[in-house]
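Below is a filled-in request sheet from our internal design queue. Each sheet records the structural input a requester submitted and the sequence that came back. We keep these sheets so that new team members can see what a complete request looks like end to end.

REQUESTER: design group, bay 2
PRIORITY: normal
MODE: inverse folding
CHAIN LENGTH: 409
BACKBONE (tokenized):
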């Protein structure tokens, strides 16, 4: 059966399915619809033919996902790449979800503003992909998550219905906030077609400081006691493997990097305070180089070998990592304290043991990527699976989106 014709699209829309493999599993068919009308036709046909669909942008996040149980059709959405509306005076931007994050960042930077999105490989990652992953980086405290910044958008259900949620202004409170629900859904509920974000003004000055630490220094609670009160824009702790290849960072078992962003006088004063509290930094970079450093750290969240475990935490001190420094995964640890997020690359065989050890240290497991199944026997897991299942049933009753079951679970 010619699936392309069955879905109502021209054969010229077909792409090589091998390019869209997830965990070594390629779909039966890959298509790039020419626009919203063809996307509607493709989804209608997929629902009619009971095909399991995965929406694709740059593939940055999907590359490390475990393959879905069923995977028939990949839909490449990169043709939807228009900036629909940009209002610099209102600090709002509306764009289609196939445009890259880097392109949007460049658009608003020309007006002295910042796109409040951080994700791995922004030059390839798409706007819709960053929203679907609810992606974040070192500056999550300053920006919030995409779920916090999105004002509204258009999304398409599995049967091709185009719906609207929220609006293009900050004070729009009409209807249900489906746009926020879709952030983090990994394309398991609907296809985000267009979205509006609240932007941020760019700071006048940027500075990044970095210190190399060993396991003993990392466990020094007193040394870091003043850190939360110093109000950095961002700060992270990286194991040696996680820091490797990032320019300007020292070579050490662990690296702590701090970002300062504000007016020049405040940043200069903060440099003095951080040096007094933590000692002379081993590296410091300013201006665009400091921004490039935070983006390089965000790139470290891209796919790598093995599985990737994520944890949430209320910890603010680097010393919280001390119980994990003797683990085999320690060199890969990536702790974004300003967002309360810990990540670690592990071998599949070590995943459960490391999750248990991290839980004992006060980190709550939230997600596992690169594993077919991962259900660590830990207390305190989410009790909202029934609600998530009912939401999926309402938005995608036919089960068209391949990752819907994973989202609901």
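RETURNED SEQUENCE:
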């Amino acid at each position: 059966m010619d699936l392309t014709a069955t879905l109502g699209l021209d054969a010229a829309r077909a792409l090589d399915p091998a390019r869209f493999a997830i965990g070594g599993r390629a779909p039966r068919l890959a298509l790039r619809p020419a626009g919203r009308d063809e996307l509607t036709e493709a989804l209608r046909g997929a629902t009619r033919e009971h095909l399991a669909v995965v929406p694709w942008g740059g593939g940055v996040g999907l590359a490390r996902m475990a393959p879905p149980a069923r995977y028939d059709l990949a839909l490449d959405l990169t043709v939807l790449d228009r900036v629909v509306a940009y209002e610099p005076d209102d600090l709002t931007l509306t764009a289609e979800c196939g445009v890259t994050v880097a392109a949007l960042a460049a658009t608003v930077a020309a007006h002295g503003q910042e796109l409040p999105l951080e994700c791995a490989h922004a030059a390839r990652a798409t706007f819709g992909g960053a929203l679907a992953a609810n992606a974040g980086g070192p500056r999550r405290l300053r920006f919030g998550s995409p779920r916090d910044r999105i004002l509204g958008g258009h999304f398409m259900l599995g049967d091709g219905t185009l719906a609207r949620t929220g609006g293009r202004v900050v004070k729009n409170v009409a209807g249900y906030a489906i746009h926020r629900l879709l952030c983090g859904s990994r394309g398991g509920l609907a296809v985000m077609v267009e979205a509006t974000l609240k932007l941020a003004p760019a700071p006048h000055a940027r500075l990044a400081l970095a210190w190399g630490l060993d396991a003993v220094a990392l466990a020094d609670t007193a040394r870091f006691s003043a850190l939360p009160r110093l109000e950095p824009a961002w700060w992270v702790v990286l194991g040696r493997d996680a820091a490797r290849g990032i320019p300007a960072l020292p070579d050490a078992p662990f690296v702590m990097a701090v970002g300062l962003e504000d007016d020049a006088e405040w940043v200069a004063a903060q440099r003095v305070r951080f040096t007094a509290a933590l000692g002379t930094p081993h590296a410091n970079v300013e201006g665009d180089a400091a921004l490039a450093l935070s983006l390089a750290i965000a790139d470290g969240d891209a796919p790598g070998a093995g599985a990737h475990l994520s944890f949430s935490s209320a910890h603010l001190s680097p010393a919280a990592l001390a119980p994990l420094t003797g683990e085999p995964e320690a060199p890969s640890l990536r702790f974004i304290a300003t967002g309360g997020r810990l990540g670690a690359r592990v071998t599949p065989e070590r995943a459960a043991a490391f999750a248990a050890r991290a839980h004992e240290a006060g980190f709550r497991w939230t997600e596992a990527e690169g594993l077919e199944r991962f259900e660590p026997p830990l207390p305190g897991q989410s009790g909202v699976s029934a609600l998530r299942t009912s939401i999926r049933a309402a938005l995608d009753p036919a089960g068209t989106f391949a990752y819907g079951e994973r989202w609901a679970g």
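SHEET NOTES:
- The two ends are 33 Å apart (CA to CA).
- The longest helix spans residues 264-278.
FILED BY: M.R.
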